[in-house]
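Comment thread on ticket #2218

A.B. wrote:
> Attaching the input chain for the structure job we discussed in standup.
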Amino acid sequence: MELHLIGKPNAPALVLLGSSPALEPLKKTCLLLLPSFAEEATEDEKLAALEKELLLHYGGRIRGVYAFGSSAGLALRLYAGGRVRMRAVVVESAASLPDGLTRMPGPVWYWYRKKDKTAKRIRESLKALARPLNTLCMKKLPADSALADVRPDLAAGRLSALFGGGVSVTSAGMVPGSPEKVWEYLTLRPVGPETALLTRMSPVLCEDGEHVRLVEGSSKKLAFWSHLVRLEKADDALTYVTDQVELDAGKLNGLAVPLTGLYLREEHLRRSLAMRNTGHAV
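C.D. wrote:
> Ran it. Output below, let me know if you need it in another format.
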């Protein structure tokens, strides 16, 4: 699998599957990720390759996925799997739903033609899986066309409103120690100085099984701050640690990006030194 990137590196990431070139204006608010798979690849192989890429290079978190037609099943399976976090999925003109599809972790947007005979059945199936299901019924859309083919401004505007906004900063590197030892250090140590920026905070989320920690909050100057830390085993003596911060500081986003990058590098250095000097988390 190859992943083609369009847009600004620090924009929130949006995966496009089976999409129209007319959606390229989304690059103004999102970093567009366009996967390209080998013709002989099965859907299981596509799912595994895409999930691996997003976990390794994007910390396992993107803004979401837009999928058209036959690509809808792949998008929904990625979402339902839960290993890659995202706000929502938008599927348009889904041809069918994959067998054994489980409950979605969040909202799904379903766009369909009113005259599509399978649309009603798929809509009812998604109602039982999505929480919630949001629909857009298009009365005059020609057969085999996407909304972006007819009204690119409307399609891009809706997707930008749902997935755009804010910036994303990612930093990753190796830390001495096993994932279990680094995770122990992270969970025993109080959250870093970022909490001083936040007047409202959600409870810190620690997922032991996935080795993921999430710190979220907001303030008058920060519409939102979401710091994800994810650990991945490199070998018996090293752990690959990814930090990803999504934030929205409005007009100060341009300044926030380098400052956040500096903060993440300092956090990485502190962890590395602590693990190197003590060998364990105490």
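A.B. wrote:
> Thanks. Noting for the ticket: The chain has a mean pLDDT of 94.
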